[in-house]
Amino acid sequence: MQLNQIIRVIICLIAVLVVNPTFGQSVKNQKVINLHAGSSLVGGAIDLIVGSGEEIDTDTTNNFVEINNSSVSGGRALLVGFDYGLSSRWSLGGFFSTQRRHGTTEFSYEDASSVIQTETIKFNLRRNSIGFTPKVHYGNRDRIDLYSGVRMGWLFWVNSIESTSGKFDLFDDMITSRPFFGLTAFGARVYPTDNIGLNFELNLGAPNIIGLGAVIKLP
């Protein structure tokens, strides 16, 4: 099933369950596990810049630099999280997320003797983030929980880049570790059963923009 099809299914479920008049989904001391797969801007940027397979000219060090014949692959940003209900309105949670991009590219550069050299670069990039997220819950029904919130924490990379020249710096500005702050503009949890549900999130910032997955309420 494609991503847009999954989104349509979740929207239809929300529309059906919103008409349920029973109030009160988020409760004090409620514990929820979140499992997400989502899309990120960084993953998309790497796919666009490197994975196009087309020739790219840059000039980051006042020398001739070129990459071509590129390939890149990798999955979506995976996230596992835990939320704890502080009240029927507020919850506080933590999460860990990871996303991988790997591939090869032919890298050409001008050496000290003005001779064009070419080498094959192999890269394996993994972006990780760990943080916490307070949420405010609203518009709740018996089998639906709507919420918004903020996400903040630390983003860090684990990388392996095989280069014999040491001149390949295309990823340097992109793969820096840093603190991050983001927003969950809108989130919805839909529970077809009492304890297992579907989850959709629309976010601004790391670690993902759109998140789809499952939630499990613990006893």
Topology summary:
Blueprint: H1 3-18, E1 31-39, H2 41-49, E2 56-58, E3 65-73, E4 77-85, E5 90-110, E6 116-141, E7 144-162, E8 178-190, E9 196-204, E10 210-218
Antiparallel strand pairs: 1-4, 1-10, 2-3, 3-5, 4-5, 5-6, 6-7, 7-8, 8-9, 9-10
Q: How many domains, as an integer?
A: 1
Order of helices and strands: HEHEEEEEEEEE
The rounded Rg comes to 22 Å
How would you state the average pLDDT, rounded? Answer: 81
List key phrases describing it.
single chain; elongated; 2 helices; mainly beta; 8-stranded antiparallel barrel; Porin; 58% strand; 219 residues
What does this structure look like?
The chain has one domain: Porin. The protein is 11% helix and 58% strand. It has an eight-stranded antiparallel barrel. A hairpin with a 5-residue loop joins strand 8 and strand 9.
Please summarize what this structure is.
The chain has one domain: Porin (Beta Barrel), CATH 2.40.160.
